[in-house]
Amino acid sequence: MVSRRKFLAIIAAVAGFASFKRKVAAQEPVEGYDWNKHKYAFVVDTTRCIGCGRCVRACKIENEVPMKPFYFRTWVERWVWLKDEEGPKVDSPNGGFDGFPPTYDERMISKSYYVPKLCNHCDRPPCVQVCPVGATYKTKDGVVLVDEKYCIGCRYCIQACPYGARYLYPADGPRETRRNTADKCTWCYHRITRGYKPACVEVCPVGARKFGDLMDPEDEVRKIIEERRVQVLKPDMGTLPQVYYIELDSEVR
Amino acid sequence: MSEILWQVLQHVQGYIYPNEVEVNWSVLIALYPYITGLVAGAFIVASLERIFKVEAVKPTYRLALLTALAFLLCAPLPLVAHLGHPERALEIMMTPHLSSAMAGFGFVYAWYLMAVLLIELYFDYRKDIVMWSQEVGGIKGFIYKILTLGDYNISDEAVKADNKIVNIVTVIGLPSAAFLHGYVGFIFGSVKANHWWSSPLMPIIFLFSAMVSGIALVLLIYIVSSYIRGVELDRACTDTLANYLLYSYLLDLSLEFMELAHLFYTQEEGIDAIRVLITDKLFWTFIVIQVFLGTLVPIFLLIIARTGIFKFNVRKWIYIFVTTLTLIGVFAMRWNVVIGGQLISKTYLGYTTYIMPLFGPESLSLALAIWILPFIILAVLIKLLPPWEHPHEWEKTEAE
């Protein structure tokens, strides 16, 4: 199992990283895009993720997320269950940006998997509820966005998000207009409104991340959600997340 | 900030979400509920005399109102200073998002300042202001003339009408004061993502600790200002306030105990992380400062003082010690809620650390400056509107 992952990681590193140059400049959604005709959802297949970190790197480049290890729109966690130990070991060094070092003795591992995380674009988003000025809002196609020109930087939304998906864009961040405002994954709104996939989905070498439109009956994501057993993170929060996980371990939160 | 985050990263324990390294609500946000709590508490002291007719504490009536005003004027400062974009602060009021508890702040604040405190102070002081405007010259006299708002009628009927208005405003003001601070507790209590905060008891706990801190502050200011003025303390007033401090403390302690008991009894997810938070991460600020020095010691000393085994001269020093401990203890409570709640990860698997910068934005020095400012404003207010030089008109009216 682990050797397969390693093999795939090497393939991914060699074949993939240099090819990621199809950067779409982040800007307003294209004219003519009708958000009433889409309802997006995201699927993460935890059985496929190899922890290569390409998605994390792609996201940072695509969305001008500061390269420091405390700001992430998406990250990958490694969950490891060791034999004779209660509870999992979890880590995410630099959000998985550089992949994962072989920390554990393979003979001691009972089970392990990688869990990519991102904003859940909840149907009932607590971040939207608490924003005092309405700078963070939910679009009709199901995406939660932040208006960087309107956000006052109070950080209430960061506190309200149960998933740690938000951070305050730092004062020295590369995108000037976004400085000192709340930032988070937008499912690459500038890409998806043009018909592209989010950057992390595009670069995933194993198809662990899938993005689709629930209004399209032929969409792969819609079929997965309809036909397979999927789970969301922290369902008890009542936030109705729109990122669905295949084969999610109940301990993952 | 980035340099501090690099340091913090070295101190992260266990597993936290990568975005949780930074403690987003800093010392300034701990200061904010502290200051609003003092406002609410001071107003409740004033209400004791007006609504509940506690004769003994009359000497502190106007002092409590001025204290509430001085602190209320500074209440938004830590919030605004903390914002990433303070120049957009007014958007909270101009284009509020009504589902947000924080958006309510502007309106609750404005209501309390404009519709309660300023009206009550104006009508309470109106006769004095008119008299001072005629007696005093220069800039001060000019200020009094402005403060009269052009109404120089101080006939008996007018003063009686003033008193009626003050009584009505006080009745409206008491729930308003409770709402002002209760809603601050609601901001924290309603964050379901954070188990250390998420509790319907939070607004009530905030309110009772506000009463504790407000009574302590007014009592301390009363003792210190009497010393500065070279005036004997009113013993009945001092002892009565101390008694009310004790009663509020007992209620506050019971509520906080119930909150903790509930946490540990229900054993919900994250309880192990909370246990470590209390016994390790917040050991000094929670167990030692908030619970022991800030609650148990003052309650013990107040009970001892109440037995009357000490003379007033000794009791006075006990009160000074107790009120100082109280003010520190209640700030520790705000700190433990605000900062403590962010040390614990929403994964319940790890902890971050808070490193407070000494200078710059969201620093210790800025917090101290904002903390000192209300006392300077209070000194100016006392100079302008002496709370003790004229007998209260409403007392006379009621005596008749």
From TrEMBL, chain A:
PROSITE patterns listed in its UniProt record: 4FE4S_FER_1, 4FE4S_FER_2
Domain of life: Archaea
UniProt keyword annotation of 4Fe-4S present: yes
4Fe-4S found in the keyword field: yes
Keywords: 4Fe-4S, Iron, Iron-sulfur, Metal-binding
Annotated CDD domains: PsrB
Protein name: 4Fe-4S dicluster domain-containing protein
Biological source species: Geoglobus acetivorans
Lineage: Archaea, Methanobacteriati, Methanobacteriota, Archaeoglobi, Archaeoglobales
Automatic annotation (TrEMBL), chain B:
Residues annotated as transmembrane: 25-48, 60-81, 101-123, 165-189, 201-224, 244-264, 284-305, 317-344, 364-385
Gene3D superfamilies: Formate dehydrogenase/DMSO reductase domain (1.20.1630.10)
Keywords, in A-Z order: Cell membrane, Membrane, Transmembrane, Transmembrane helix
InterPro entries noted in UniProt: Electron_transfer_protein (IPR052049), NrfD-like (IPR005614)
Keyword Transmembrane helix (UniProt): yes
Top-rank taxon: Archaea
Pfam families with a match to the protein in the record: NrfD
Main localization, broad class: membrane
Methyltransferase in keyword set: no
Topology class, membrane: Multi-pass membrane protein
Family per record: Belongs to the NrfD family.
PANTHER family: PROTEIN NRFD
Protein name (record): Polysulfide reductase NrfD
Organism: Geoglobus acetivorans
Gene transcribed to yield this protein: nrfD
